[in-house]
Task: structure prediction
Amino acid sequence: MAAERSTILVINPNSNPAVTAGICEALEPLRLGGGPEILCETLAEGPFGIESQADIEAVTLPLRDLILQRREADAFVIACYSDPGLQVCREAIGKPVFGIQACAVLTAAMRGDRFGVIALGEASIRRHLRYLRQIGLIARLAGERSAALSVAETGEGGQTFERLLNVGSALRDYDGADVLILGCAGMASHRSALEQRLGIPVIDPTQAAVAMALGSVQIERAAHRADAWAASA
Result:
């Protein structure tokens, strides 16, 4: 009898379905044959864009409740760069829950010496710096600069891309970043083009988090298979 397929649930905490669609499309390269299923869901109770501390606090309990409703999933990814509700959700479910900011920073630290972050706005930068201090990686930050965008604008076309490109160029040329992080899940559609134009690695945080979730789920799955084999031997 075939083993049941593992599932990773990626939750967009804002209520903008276009952002969820962009995230889902960016994760397509990680959907491997025979590997865990990667599902994306929008938090209906969330604001249209998470752009303030109040927005972050407002989605914490709805995120927890949604994760508990989807408890059959093997791992969860909170697809907002401020990692809202991360510790509350981990405490509630007892399964792997990944925040995309922490995963992006750890990935960037493995790809280069000093990373730069393209943020939505100035208020985002203050929140991100607090978090970097909390997780002990502030020393690896080359700089963080604002693209002066709303969440709704991040997935749009040429003008948004040019703004991200200008900010990324400044982080590379003036701040000394040798790897960049997109500071919002909604920027995912621009990752590849930015990397090609800038000539340095560009990390999409949701891809980074799902890659870690895949590793966690596959290792756990292999351990269960080994335990089952040992029990039947």
About this structure: Residues 205-232 form the longest helix (28 residues). The chain has two domains: 7-100+206-232, 101-204.
